Amino acid sequence: MKSATRLCSSRSTACSTTNAFTRALSVLRINVVTIFPEFFAGPLSISIPAKAAGTGGVAYNVIDLRAFTYDRHRTVDDAPFGGGPGMVMKPGPFFEAVESVQATAPIVLLSPRGRRFSHADAVRFAAGTELTLLCGHYKDIDERVATHLATEEMSLGDFVLSGGEPAALAIIDATVRLLPGAIGDIESARTDSFYERGISAPSYTRPAEYRGFTVPDVLVGGDHAKVAAWRDDQSLQRTRKAEARDRAEWAVREQMIAAREAVIAEAARVQAEKAAKKAREKAAKARVRARAARKSASDATETE
Predict the structure, then answer these.
(1) Residues 6+ apart with CB under 8 A from 56
(2) What Å distances lie between residue 62 and 59, 89, 115, CA to CA?
(3) Last residue of some domain: 146, 176, 206?
(4) 24 and 167 within one domain
(5) Single residue among 119, 150, 176 that ends a domain in this structure
(6) Which segments of the chain are extended strands (E)?
(7) Which DSSP string corresponds to 7-19?
(8) What average pLDDT score do residues 120-149 get?
(9) Which helix (H) or strand (E) holds 298?
(10) Nearest-CA neighbor of 122 among 91, 81, 154, 95?
């Protein structure tokens, strides 16, 4: 088995623990399978991802998918069965890459077909000991990777990226920032959107007036109870507005799906009618041939 490429934070030579507190915690190992391992070198060595690794909370293992190919061109894709545009990533390299590190669930295939990633998923991943992210590219990934290797499929939303790498970075960042020691002020994280709440309240800082735009009076009045009440109210209003927007978008999407289903049903009906007509014509021709054969046999008998 070929070796996987390992990438650790520059602050930790082996992604090891640095103090007694973090040593008492289990390290989250994040495996990333990609054809562009260099994509992760910079982002994982700066800011929160690097700090999380530096405190021993996470170890990054970036695996070069091309290390599990066996031709001189290091080919990871091929033409799709059934024809059509684009190239499809082969299943073999993905299976072997995951097996090389003996990865266990969750093994996440990043795909626009997947369930949308949420804060709840980040919390779940942060509470675990291992996470494997499979980054696709080209037109698609062989479906056997989704059905027989990945334990779940996830997306960032209803749009298509050039590859799974940006999505993997987003999931990594959302996950590791929840690890102990990754963020200096954990209370700041707890007041973020979706952290046991909906959308967070708006934030303001100095100056209190800028180009005629002022900070709400309640925030500068010094009454902490009123500030907390205002923030709760603003959070609720924003959450309701976002939910209403999401419901409207889903209604439009349901209409699009219904229209597509109608088109597919009509195409199936037309195809069925054509098939039935062809079958009737074939049966009619068979009857004609059968009559002709019987007549020929009858004429031959009369001649005798």
Answers:
(1) 12, 15, 16, 17, 18, 19, 22, 23, 25, 27, 181
(2) 10, 18, 24
(3) 176
(4) yes
(5) 176
(6) 28-34, 58-64, 77-78, 88-89, 107-116, 130-134, 140-141, 152-155, 209-210, 213-214
(7) ---TT-TTS---S
(8) 96
(9) helix 224-303
(10) 154
3-class DSSP assignment, residue 214: strand
Q: How confident is the model at residue 184 (pLDDT cuts 50, 70, 90)?
A: low
Query: Does the structure show a pLDDT above 90 at 300?
Result: no
Residue 207 belongs to some domain of the structure: no
The reply to whether 303 falls in a domain is yes
DSSP secondary structure code for residue 80 in this structure: P
Place of tokens 């391992």: 37
Domain shared by 222 and 302, yes or no: yes
pLDDT tens sequence across 68-117:
999 999 999 999 999 999 999 999 999 999 999 999 999 999 999 999 99
Structural domain span for residue 166: 20-176
Which is nearest to 25 in space by CA: 50, 58, 1?
58
* Residue-level pLDDT at 188: 58
Cα(225)–Cα(220) distance, integer angstroms:
12
pLDDT tens digits along 36-64? 999 999 999 999 999 999 999 999 999 99
Tally of structural domains, the chain = 2
CB 54 within 8 A of CB 179: no
In whole angstroms, give the CA distance from residue 35 to residue 66.
6
